[in-house]
Every structure is written in C-alpha cells, then in structure tokens.
Amino acid sequence: MFLALTYILPFLGVISWSVTLPEVGVDQYATALSDPLILSVFWRTLRICAMVTLISVTAGYTIALLWVRGGALARLLCELCIIIPFWISVLTRAFGWLALLSNRGLINSWLQSIGLLDGPLALVRNEIGVVIGMVHFLIPFAVFPIATAMRNVDERAVMAARGMGAGRARIFWQVFVPMTAPGILGGALLVFVFAIGFFVTPAILGGGRSVMIAELIYLRIFQSPNWGLAAAISVVLMLSIAALLALLLRQLQPGGAK
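Given the sequence above, the corresponding structure tokens read:
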C-alpha cells in the first residue's frame, strides 16, 4: 500500500499528463521518439551511462577484490573509501569536482605551475567532467554486489584449479571471474540504472553542454513548459529502467542466464 501511494499513483498521474496535455492523444510520444534533439539527448545519455558503468565496474571490481581478499590494512582502507563518500552530499561532490577540474581549478593550476601544460585542459562543461563526477558517486554501488559475489565464491574450486597446476592469472580469469559474473552483472545494471536518472552532477559539471535525459525533463517542465512532452519522456525512461530491472532479475535467478 505504501509503494502504491508513493510510486504507482504518482506515476499513473504522469502517464495521464503524457496523453492529455496539451490535448488528448499520443502525439507527445511520437514527438519523444522522433524529435532529433530528444533522440540526441537519449543517445548521449546512453553513451555516458555506458562509459560510467564500464569504468565504475572495473574500478569497483578492483576495490572489491582488495576488500574481500586483501590484508587487514587494505580492507580498512577500502572500507573507508567506500563508506566516507556516503557522508558527502551529491551536490557537495559536484562542486568539489568543479573546483578541481575547472580551468582555474587545482588540477589545471598545478599542471601549469610545473610546466606540463601551456594552457588549461577542458575537464568541465563537457562529457569528461560528467563522467568523472558520476563515476566517483557510483563506484560504491558497483562494489557491494561484486563483493557479495566474491564472498560466495567456492574456495574448493579455486583450490582444485591450483592443484591441477593452473597459475594465478589463469585461476583468476577462468575460475574466479566467471564465478563472480552475477555480481558483475548486478553491479553493472545497478550503476547503469542509477546513472540514467542523474541530474545534479551532469547539470553542474556539464554546464548545459552535455544535457542528459533527466535535465531535459527538468527543462521541459520549468524553463520551456511542455508538461505533456516531459511526462512522455519520463514514461519512456521509466519503461526503459523497468526493462533493465527485469533483465537483472532474470539473469540473477538460478538458470536465468541459460
């Protein structure tokens, strides 16, 4: 009942806006699926989310490996690196990266002061800054499912591979990584779903030049009011996320990947 009141009913209201504003019909969906600007934003969002997912899962796998199988000091450092970012709001993180990456930020100023650069690197108001900010926020969400999968690895399989003469690299790539594949898939889909709905980080670090789908919905509601079109884009986005979640649940079920 709580979920119905807080999620389903408002979403039904959004669906009704999409087919009634400014007039009854599905014209807004036709616009959402054919307008070149909207489609370019969709493709940009998918491209950025794919890059963020790849980087986050790769970094998250490394951190999870140190967290689960490293020494006491490595585990402590990993736990601090995972937990401390949750104490900092997404808005504070975004402005922190803006201070670091801007033309007069700490990174560009330091690189120019030591003579490595003649001019500042363009690290904000583009996709580079957006990807960096989103990866920083989403890495912990990749770590948790991967670490869980690593803790569930049957050590007998690793020991058997070692007993058969396999080297450490072969054991890792042919035994350990396949056995943690559900965690990798779960982390990837979790990060991708979160990334699709990002708003604050792309808005600040993208500077209006790397607009993603959530920011486009905001603009269509508050700056160039077209509530019906914004609702239609929202519905398409929600259905896409639902399809990804259904894929996740199917793949994580026993025998789901067959």
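The mean pLDDT is 88. Try to locate this feature in the token string yourself.
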